[in-house]
Amino acid sequence: MIFCLPHMRALLPLRRSRSPLPGALYRCFSAHQQALDVVYRKLLDLDENAAFNVTEEQSTAVRMATQGYSVFLHLPTGAGKSLAFQTPALLTAADKTTLVVSPLIALMHDQVAALRRKGINAIQVSGDDRNKSVSLTQLLAGQRLVYTTPEFLLMNAEMKRWMRAAANEARLDRIVLDEAHCVLEWGNTFRPSYLQLSQWKTQFFSDVPLTLATASVSDEDIARLAELFHLQLRHEAPDEDLVMKTSRHSQMVVIQQVTDRENLRMEVMRKTPEAAQLIANRVGNETTIVFCMTQKEAEDTCLAFVRIGCHAGVYHGGLPRKRREFVRKQWMMGQLTIICATSAFGMGVDRSDVRFVVHHSIPLSLSAYSQQIGRSGRDGKPAECILLYSEADKRRADALTTERLDLDGTGSGAFVTNGSSRGELEDVVGFCEMATGCRKELLYAHFGFHFDNRRCTKNCNCGVPLEAATEWRDDVKIHSPMNKTIEEEGISKGAIEYQYQKILAESKRLKLPKREALSRRLIRILATGQEILETEPTSEEEMASMRGIGPAKAERYFNLFRFD
Fold it and tell me: Considering only CA atoms, which of 282, 249, 482, 300 is closest in space to residue 386?
C-alpha cells in the first residue's frame, strides 16, 4: 500500500490539463515515488522542503519513458523538455546511460555544465573539444547522460564501438534526439547526418527506446518522423498492462502541449530597402534576434545595423567555432543588442528577456517560424515578432526549397529534396499574404489545434493588408494582460480607419452602395460582421448583446455600421 500526504501532485496519476499544476500537493512514500521526488528536486535545484510544479505533460513523459515506451515530446519553448527526458535517465540503474543527440555544441555545453553543477554525471563529446589522451571508453564510464552531435556519433569509430558495446551489454538505456525537427529541416541539406540517424538507429539499435523532443512540429511531421524511425504512433498513453514490455520501445507515445502565449504579438510587414533603419527605430535598445535566410544575408544585415550605430553581431555556421562562441557570449551578457543569425541560433539559449524576434526574410516553414518566435518573451513580458515579407524573398525561398543535394557525391541519382517542401513554403506565403481571417488561428491550425479567433486581434495584425502595415504599425503597442495599451477587444483604430477608407474608395470606384462595399470588407474584421449587417442593430446596447461583440466592440464599431 502507498501512503500519500499533501506534497506533490506530479507523482500521482493526473487529470488531463494544459497548464502547470497548481502546486506541490502530494508526497508518496513508495520507493519509486521517493526516488522520483529526489530526482525532480536535484534537476530543479531545490531543497527538500521547497514546493515545485511539474506539468502533466512532463509527468506523463517521465512515466511513459520509465515504462519503456518511445516518446515524442512536443512542448513549447521554456516548457521543460529537458526535465522530461533527463528525469528518466536518472531513475535507471547507475550503470546505464542515456545518449542525447543535440545540434549545437554551445547548446550541449550549457546543458552539461548545468547538470554537472547539480552533481549529475554528464559529459559532452564532439570532435573538436575532447581530450584525446584519454580513451572514449574511460571518458564515458559512469556517465548518466552523454551529449554528442550526429556527426560525431556516426563518423567517429571509437564512439561507434562504445555505442555497440553499451547496447550489447544493456547499458544504453535510451536515445534522445533533442530539437528533433532538425531531422526533417536539415537532414536533406547541410547536415545529412541528421537524416542518416534514422537508418543508424533502426539498423543497429532498434531495441533501444527513443525520445524525440521539439518545440515546434506539425502532425504531418510527427507522422513522417515516426515512419523514418519505424515506430508506431500512439496519441494516448497506453494502459501499462495491455502492452508487452518487449514491444514498448517500438511504440511512440505522442505528448503535446500547446499554450497561447498572449505576451507575443505577431506582425507581418512589407519589406522595404530601409528595413535595417526601421527595425533599429522599432527595437531601440531591447534584446533582439534577427533571423536571416542565408549566411551572407546575416552578414550584410549585421553590417547595415552597425553602420547606423547599433550594437549588432552576426552568428552562423560558416564562422569559426571560437568566433561564434564569442559573439554568443557578448549577446548573452548584453554587450550586443541585436544578433543577426541563421535558423540555428537560439536553440536552447537560456535568455528569457528577448523582446523582439525579427524575420528579415521569409522562413521556409510555419514550423520553423513557430520555433523561432518561441525564443522571445520567455519571461512572460510583452514581446514582438515581426516578419518582413517581399516577393524577392519568396522567390529566393522557393529556389532553396527546390534545391537538390547529392548526398554520396557520385552524381548517380542519390538525390533528395530539401527538408522544407514547396508546400510548406506555400503555407508561409499564405500566412503572410492573407487579407482576411486570423494569422494566429492559421498558425495553430497548422499544428492541429483550435484557436478562438475572437481573441486574435490582441496578438496579430489581422485584417491589415501588407501595404498598410507600416502605417498601422505606428498605432499599435504590445498587448499583454499587464499592459493593455491596445483596446480591450478588437484591433487598433489605425486598422479600422484604414479599412473604412478602403470601403469608401471601393464604393466610389465601383459605384457600389455603401452597404455592399461594407459587406465586402468590414465583415472581415469581425466574425459576426455578416450577422450585424443582417440584423441591423439600432443601438450600441443591441449590438453589444450579439454573439462575440460586447460593450467595448459595440462602442467602437457601431457607427461604422450606420447608413443614415
Answer: 282
- 3-state SS assignment for residue 66: helix
Q: What's the rounded Cα separation, in Å, for the pair 56 and 12?
A: 10
CA–CA gap between residue 65 and residue 85 (Å, rounded): 8
Dihedral of CA atoms 138, 192, 345, 132 in degrees, nearest 10, equals: 20
Cα-Cα end-to-end distance for the chain: 76
Taking residue 54's Cβ as centre, other Cβ atoms within 10 Å add up to 23
Longest Cα separation, the chain: 88
Residues 137 and 108 in one domain: yes
d(CA 210, CA 149) in angstroms, rounded, equals 16
Which residue range(s) make up the domain with 38? 1-54
Helix/strand/coil percentages in the chain, nearest 5: 45, 15, 40
pLDDT of residue 426: 83
Q: Is the domain of 245 the same as that of 284? A: no
With vertex at residue 266, the alpha carbon angle to CA 262 and CA 267, rounded to the nearest 5 degrees, is 150
% of the chain at pLDDT higher than 70: 69
* Among 175, 160, 166, residue whose Cα is nearest residue 142: 166
Instruction: Look at the chain and report how many structural domains it folds into.
Output: 4
> How would you classify residue 347: left for phi > 0, otherwise alpha for psi between -120 and 50, otherwise beta?
beta
Q: Which three cell numbers stand for residue 445?
A: 491550425
Same domain for 88 and 43, yes or no, is: no
Question: What is the per-residue pLDDT across 44-65, written as a single tens digit (0 to 9) for each?
Answer: 888 888 888 888 899 999 999 9
> Is 110 found in the same domain as 29?
no
Q: Is residue 306 part of a domain?
A: yes
> What's 231's domain CATH number?
3.40.50.300
Same domain, yes or no: 98 and 227? yes
What stretches of 388-438 show up as alpha helix (H) in DSSP?
391-401, 422-433
Instruction: Identify each DSSP E strand in 119-165 by its residue range.
Output: 122-125, 145-148
> Coil, strand or helix: which one is 268?
strand
Pick left, alpha or beta for residue 228 (phi over 0 → left; psi -120 to 50 → alpha; otherwise beta).
alpha
3-state secondary structure (DSSP) of residue 329: helix
Contacts of 139 (CB under 8 A, 6+ apart): 123, 125, 130, 131
Q: Specify if 490 maps to a domain.
A: no
pTM score, two decimals? 0.64
Q: What is the pLDDT of residues 98-157, one digit of tens each?
A: 999 998 787 788 889 999 999 999 999 987 666 666 788 888 988 999 999 998 998 888
